[in-house]
TrEMBL record:
InterPro entries, per the entry: Sig_transdc_resp-reg_C-effctor, Tscrpt_reg_LuxR_C, WH-like_DNA-bd_sf
Name of the protein this chain belongs to: HTH luxR-type domain-containing protein
Domain HTH luxR-type stretches: 115-172
Alphabetical list of Gene3D superfamilies matching this protein: Winged helix-like DNA-binding domain superfamily/Winged helix DNA-binding domain (1.10.10.10)
SMART domains: HTH_LUXR
Length: 180
């Protein structure tokens, strides 16, 4: 989806419209988009402001990853990034912000494995990271040691050409919507 510097929607795709309508993770209040629940509101607004400044040529913020919380659904990782909106027939280019996330209702593990050549265990690890799990929490839930999880993560980094968890999640979130 695209929003302007004041968090007003410019474009919402079908997934974004569904989440906003259900007030799952994201909601509209007074015509402005923001987290549906109190946790993360300031972080979202700060990320949007920084991305809009960069989009307008006045800042240096790159893509930023963070989690939106829903008390029932859990965490949804999102990427907030600068986006230069094209000029409309009646106006100039304007600063905009890209808010990107994968469809939380669509199973991702199979798509992850196919897209990056990940094993089932590696796919489950990435899925857990997308859901906001820490390495130690995932290790406990999977019944393995943290060292085993770190080894899996190193293999995931190699297969996805990334070196940090944030870069991995940004890549997966950015590319996952295109995966069938």
């Amino acid at each position: 989806m695209n929003i302007d510097a004041e968090c007003r929607p410019m474009f919402l795709n079908a997934v974004a419209e569904r989440l906003v309508a259900r007030r799952r993770w994201l909601a509209l209040a007074a015509g402005r988009l923001g987290p549906a629940h109190h946790g993360g509101r300031s972080g979202f607004a700060e990320a949007v402001a920084g991305a809009a400044q960069t989009s307008g040529g006045r800042g240096l913020m790159g893509a930023r990853l963070f989690q939106l919380a829903d008390p029932v659904e859990g965490a949804l990782p999102i990427v907030v990034a600068p986006f230069r909106a094209p000029a409309l027939a009646f106006g100039p280019e304007r600063p905009a912000v890209l808010v990107q996330f994968s469809d939380p209702d669509r199973p991702r593990a199979t798509a992850l494995g196919a897209a990056y050549g990940l094993s089932a265990g590696e796919s489950r690890l990435v899925e857990a990271l997308l859901g906001g799990a820490s390495l130690s929490a995932y290790a406990r839930a999977a019944g393995v040691t943290v060292n085993t999880v770190r080894t899996q993560l190193a293999r995931v980094f190699a297969k996805t050409d990334t070196a940090r968890q944030q870069d991995l999640l940004i890549k997966v979130i950015s590319e996952l919507p295109a995966m069938k």
